[in-house]
Amino acid sequence: MHLYLVRHPRPIVAANTCYGRADLAVAAEELAAARASLLPVLPKNALLFSSPLRRCSELTESLAQTLGCPTPTYDERLAEMHFGDWEMRTWDDIPRAAVNAWARDMVGYQPGGGESVLQVAQRVRAFRDELTTLNVEHAIVICHAGTIRLLAACEHGLSIPEMALYAAQKPHKIRYGELLVVDC
């Protein structure tokens, strides 16, 4: 299966803001730019999966009909990590000791009382394992940088804890609206 992993367009949010599960909108021009760059390279009539968060679902809805995809599937397992009470706070406003605690335990620590990377890895792996049972040639997944990193880590044959560590330690360079194709 060819898995087309798409990061959502840039959301409307102030710079230096911690956000994960916050349900942020996307400016019309950002949505149009992402759509224009993706339409020529995404497969037609593929299954389409998406995080239910607006920054993903808006792009999903704008692509689905043009690509001739069946009704998109919105799956909570594709949502970004929940940062608990860190959500929508500036990084400078989050106590340094808390950020340092997360840095010491990137896999198990739950930032702001939200989710750990390990918890996110478990739900993302469950999605990916279910997806592979569908026996399709192409699938498009519109989601978040963290989710994409974990989905890509699935292809290395790692255990869930190893997958979480791999994704947590590897800095991402996934641009908004970027496409990554993974062969499963």
UniProtKB/TrEMBL annotation:
<dbReference type="InterPro" id="IPR013078">
    <property type="entry name" value="His_Pase_superF_clade-1"/>
</dbReference>
<protein>
    <submittedName>
        <fullName>Phosphoglycerate mutase</fullName>
    </submittedName>
</protein>
<dbReference type="InterPro" id="IPR029033">
    <property type="entry name" value="His_PPase_superfam"/>
</dbReference>
<dbReference type="Pfam" id="PF00300">
    <property type="entry name" value="His_Phos_1"/>
</dbReference>
